[in-house]
Amino acid sequence: MATNSSTSLNVPNESSRQSTPGSTGNTLHYPPRKRRNAASTVPEASPAPSDSANAGGTTATANVTLPARHDFFSRPRLSISRFPTFQDSPNVTYHTTEQLAMNRLGFRYMPAGVAPVGSALPCRTIESGPAKFRVSWEDRSTFIKVTPDGLGLLGERGFRSARCNAPIREGAWYMEVRIECGGGERPPDAPDVNMREGSHVRLGWARREAPLNGPVGLDGYSYGYRDKTGDKVHLSRPRGYGRSFRSGDVIGMYIFLPPRRKPDPADPHDPAHLKRERIPIEFKGQEYFESLEYAQSKEMIALMEYSHKAASTASLPSVPGKKSVNSKSLPERKGSGPETPVLRPLPQLRGSHIAFFVNGECQKIAFDDLFDYLPLRRTSASRKDKENAKKRAREGAPREHKENPYDDGTLGYYPFISLFNYARVRINPGPDFEFPPPPDIEALLRKEDEDIKPSCEQTWRPICERYPEFMQEQWDLDAQEEEEAKVEMAAKAERLKAEAAKQAQKERRKRQTEAKKRAKEAETRQASVRAVSIPRTSVEREAVADLGDNYKPIISSLLAARMQLPEDVEMAHSPAPTATPSVDYRAHYAGSEYESEPAEGEGEAGDGYGGQYADAEAENRSDGVPSIDLELEELL
To answer: Which segment of 47-61, 189-203, 267-281, 376-390 scores lowest on mean pLDDT?
Structure first.
């Protein structure tokens, strides 16, 4: 099924008609053909049948508008699916159900409903009306039309098939099918009057893997009985079996399966373990469970190919080819072709068998030792590939479908009805049959092979009793999955709590580490400040004292150019004058434009400005360090 169609939300805005069964009179009425461009663009309402649906299929409906997706749990909680709905028209007997999610393209659908408040899972399995044994609304070809009670079927054009809504997994079961039009007869009221072939019917039993776009007996997954010649058909190979049947005949279908094998608790890969792989989706206003259909195994495909090869070569005469003259001298080619895959054995249900009745007359056993309906055990290499793919899946990604190697509770043998060229049948699941079989069908089937005394007690069951058992099995699986989901949620909550505590401890350690780092950096800054706070003059004096007579002041090039220093003074680029001991270079500026006449009274008195300057100069010279005495204007 396409993903876009399964995730769309259609909110109804009109009321729909009440669902009532159409007329089931003797006169057959076909619906008019639809024009291609006559489809209505207005979505229909989603009627919600009440839970108290009667056996006749008449249900009370109510108009229900679905809320938005974020308010999922506020939707009505139903036990009966909203669909299908049928037009209340007396002129139409057989209907299509276009609003349903039908099984095709490798996907399978089952009606679902919103789970009760407080559930761990969002949806649960529900029924679709009428809640009884009938043909499955979803598990049939789109070319099979049905009556509202689910018991009448009409097939258009080529062979198309439909399965019933409950499988047989063990025990002895019986049902009837009345042929209303078949056996090669041409329906007089068919729309196409130029049909080359008449209507035909094939009846039988099929597994989940059997395709719906072909007749029963097409492959190894189904066993059929054809009306034209009375042959039994399996792997597309007809074999002589019983009498042919036509319109008006009643065909009894009997199947016996041995008790179902219990799974081995010590073997986790045993296919008999019950496990479902399904995802709840929404399709046209109705919730469904979507799951992958069980794929056909390569072993069964190889068996089918072998059957066809044997059938095609059996009638061909063997023509010996002429040998070449030099054929003996040519070496044989032993090319390395593709390796033959290792095929797993196909297990069988020992003691199982299928038989048919025509108007109460037993036609003996048609098939025995049927193939087991459980999936084949996976090989170790296949399991390893699946585990690696699971590991590569992204965390938090949307849930994706995956193949189920286990029994999901729906495996078994289903009644399978195939119709051709407007053939019509009607199912009778019992308990009242037109031609009741004897109480002990097994004794009737084995009386020639074994000395078995017939029992007075009924050893078989009408197939109508299978439907409530099957639904109860599904609800038991729902309860089991709900408990497992709650346990998983509790374990997940514990994991999240432990991860949160671990993350909190990690953050706490990180904060402590950062605090220690900040404290260390602050201590380092304080030590640097204390080291810089030592008087700079004393440091410089100690350095000058160590140098002695080799000391030369480092003066910037700009300042040296302004002062025209002598060659014995070392020149260096310095960003700015420092507070080093000054040197008086005024003696070298004799005749310079910066030389000025001393002011009156300057340098005459011993205690004046000149005396102070002379004393400072003498002191500097006594230290052996030249000094510079410049005005601020001269430096600038």
So the answer is: 47-61
